[in-house]
Backbone:
């Protein structure tokens, strides 16, 4: 669970030192300008220059106040985690357990006899990118409901990591199984952009994205100008605007074949070890509504899971009726917000894990 920590601890020493020097210099400049203004008050021509200097000082003071706000108060993430503000959000809200996962539950290799462990795998959607408190994620909500329905019989762990995809999750499963970690049920959450791991264009795409990192010190080292820089970049650069079109195209080529092969291997791997693998498909929550261009990708994934006899829950029809409620973290962060997580948790409880909730009835 997120800890309440004094925000300046997340700012670098160099930034704080530069900020102090700037503020001290500004105060001295203000005092000097006032003294000059008093000395030249009977010289109108010179006084105009002093007043211009004071106007410039007030403008810089306003920018400094905004900088202080974005450095010390403003708390938000963004989709690609490019800004200093978003990086600080991670520093403030992401607390890992002893196993290195963002989870307020420990992750020991084994669980007590009679206890069933449910593990959630996935990427930033499952990790809770933009969700301040882990208790508001769908995995943790499911865990609370399981404990309420079957006290002491389940332990739920979230093993998700931002940017992870099925290849990395498969590697994690192999690593944990090799270490003898008990996993009874694994919920693998698929986001549509997970297919980028199988697309040859992905590497060059992120290389192009990385070239836009600012070099000018104001854009590189501040919070206000750094945020403004990347906001403008998001609007102007086709690599960012067309990202989701790039994902859509991947489901019509060899990347889709490779993804199916990997998911099939994951299913077989789990089945051989008596791990109950189930799938959740998360849509792009910023693009819900009629004529969703990604419906075909959802159908392909659902049909694949059904052919594999792999339990699957597609959240597209679950979330679409609520599109008007605003299900993204913000206008600049397309990850699902707390409301979307709550809807997903209810659907998972009802439509994917109903048998676990009714265990006593068997």
Residues:
């Amino acid at each position: 669970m997120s800890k309440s920590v004094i925000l300046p601890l997340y700012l670098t020493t160099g930034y704080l030192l530069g900020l102090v020097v700037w503020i001290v210099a500004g105060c001295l400049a203000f005092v000097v300008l006032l003294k000059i203004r008093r000395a030249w008050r009977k010289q109108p021509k010179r006084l105009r220059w002093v007043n211009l200097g004071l106007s410039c000082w007030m403008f810089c003071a306003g920018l400094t106040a905004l900088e202080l706000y974005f450095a010390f108060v403003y708390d938000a993430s963004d989709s690609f985690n490019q800004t200093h503000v978003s990086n600080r959000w991670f520093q403030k809200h992401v607390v890992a357990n002893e196993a290195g996962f963002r989870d307020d539950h420990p992750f020991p290799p084994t669980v007590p006899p009679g206890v069933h462990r449910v593990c959630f795998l996935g990427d930033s959607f499952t990790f809770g990118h933009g969700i301040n408190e882990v208790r508001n994620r769908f995995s943790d909500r499911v865990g609370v409901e399981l404990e309420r329905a079957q006290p002491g019989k389940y332990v739920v762990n979230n093993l998700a990591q931002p940017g992870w995809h099925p290849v990395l999750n498969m590697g994690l499963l192999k690593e944990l199984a090799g270490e003898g970690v008990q996993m009874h049920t694994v919920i693998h959450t698929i986001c549509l952009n997970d297919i980028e791991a199988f697309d040859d264009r992905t590497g060059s795409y992120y290389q192009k994205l990385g070239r836009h990192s600012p070099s000018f010190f104001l854009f590189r080292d501040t919070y206000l100008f750094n945020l403004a820089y990347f906001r403008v970049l998001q609007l102007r650069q086709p690599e960012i605007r067309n990202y989701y079109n790039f994902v859509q195209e991947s489901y019509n080529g060899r990347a889709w074949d490779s993804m199916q092969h990997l998911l099939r291997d994951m299913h077989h791997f789990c089945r051989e070890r008596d791990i109950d693998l189930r799938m959740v498909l998360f849509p792009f929550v910023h693009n819900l509504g009629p004529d969703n261009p990604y419906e075909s990708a959802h159908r392909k994934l659902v049909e694949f899971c059904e052919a594999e006899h792999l339990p699957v829950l597609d959240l597209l029809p679950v979330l679409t009726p609520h599109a008007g409620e605003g299900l993204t973290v913000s206008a600049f962060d397309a990850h699902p917000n707390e409301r979307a997580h709550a809807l997903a948790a209810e659907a998972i409880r009802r439509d994917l894990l109903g048998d676990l909730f009714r265990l006593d009835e068997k």
About this structure: Strands lie at 116-121, 154-158, 185-191, 276-282, 312-314, 328-330, 333-336. The chain has two domains: 7-72, 96-220+237-361. DSSP finds 16 helices and seven strands in the chain.
